[in-house]
# Entry
Amino acid sequence: MRSLRRCTILGVLLFLSSEAIRSAEEEGGVRIVSAQTAAKYRTASRLLHLGERIRRWVPGAGNVIRIDTPDAASPFLGPIEDAKEFIVLRSGEFLLAQTDEAVGISEDYVALILPLSHIARFGISTTNGAALVSPGYSHGTPTPLTLELHNKNRYSISLPTRSPICHLLISRVSHSIRSTPSEVSAEMTILPPRYYEQADPLISPGYQEDLLGDVRTVD
# Structure
């Protein structure tokens, strides 16, 4: 369990401007790679585009998913599909998708994924609340980000692939998280999220994936 007894979770959160994001990319602290779509920026964000690969939950596969059991999601998830031009979400449907861009950030940065306003106004949720991209995420090998798409509209929605889907907001971490216990603030236990890092973004979700990483502690 995380122990953050002396850590301020949220004080004043300042996001990088588009110019600062480009500088961070040029310096290598933020890596965003795409062979399909050109880089696009808003005033304080980098736009990410919808990729072509999706994975749907299988209807009628069972009544209850025991998320505390190994490989709990696999029997309930269908195969990975290539959507090509459009992804159609039926009313109420929830599926896994991915960004067209592969993303990696150094331990000096943290990022948030937020939906574009026009996407949200059609009733589409892009992350199902899991908006945080942790410091150090896939910095060595950038990885597409998983999108948890949920259609809350009463109508089916067709989303064109490779179109803008969300903002990536980036902020600096006040003190970088280092790899050795001696460099971590006292009385903290840090569990780096390693389950999804540098993995297929459509991998079956795991249970308490943060606990599967190396634990860094200080007595």
The two ends are 14 Å apart (CA to CA). Confidence is low (pLDDT under 50) at residues 1-10, 210-219. The helical segments are 18-27, 117-121.
